[in-house]
Amino acid sequence: MLITVKAAPHPSEKYGETVCIAGLSVDLSPRRWIRLYPINFRDLDYNDRFRKYDIITVEARPARQDQRRESWKPYPETITKHGNLRAWQPRRPHLDPQIEDSMCALFRNTRDHADAQSLALVRPKDVSGFKVEPHPG
């Protein structure tokens, strides 16, 4: 899968400090979105830690506690990195076909259909500004 999102760490009594990872399958047809949880990222061997836009393989099973169709429970010890698509051009063929027209349609579908897609890449209609502020600490 091509990693597109790595959420901020979240403390969990059951799993320790975990992150949720989302990305796109690159070897399945049709391609589909995948959510992996839980991953205790800090406990991974340094060589197994991955970054945004890394391509990885991992064994996983459908998440029984999460009914969203993209949700899988990974076996972190099976993670293998296969490279990184840091530049935009190599990522485009994977991501461009996945762009959805509207976040509203995605929300409507998940509200009306329990098995609807819940992850998506949405192109914003308008970006009227972008402000970055330094974070103390």
Overview of this protein structure:
This protein has 137 residues and is an alpha+beta fold. The chain contains two helices and ten strands. The strands form three sheets. Strands 1, 2, 3, 4, 6 and 7 form a six-stranded mixed β-sheet that branches. A hairpin with an 8-residue loop joins strand 6 (60-62) and strand 7 (71-74). The longest helix has 10 residues, at 103-112. The chain is globular. The termini are far apart.
Summary of the model, kept short:
With 137 residues, the protein is an alpha+beta fold. It has helices at residues 88-95, 103-112; strands at 2-6, 10-12, 16-24, 33-39, 54-57, 60-62, 71-74, 80-84, 99-100, 121-122. Strand 2 and strand 3 form a beta hairpin.
Termini Cα gap? 33 Å
Q: What's the total helix number?
A: 2
- How many strand units? 10
Main sheet: strands, sense, barrel: 6 strands, mixed
Q: Which overall shape is indicated by the principal axes computed on the Cα atoms?
A: globular
Global mean pLDDT: 90
Helix fraction bin: 10-25%
Q: Could you tell me the strand content as a percent range?
A: 25-35%
The arrangement of helices and strands along the chain is EEEEEEEEHEHE
Over all CA atoms, what is the radius of gyration? 16 Å
Low-confidence stretches: none
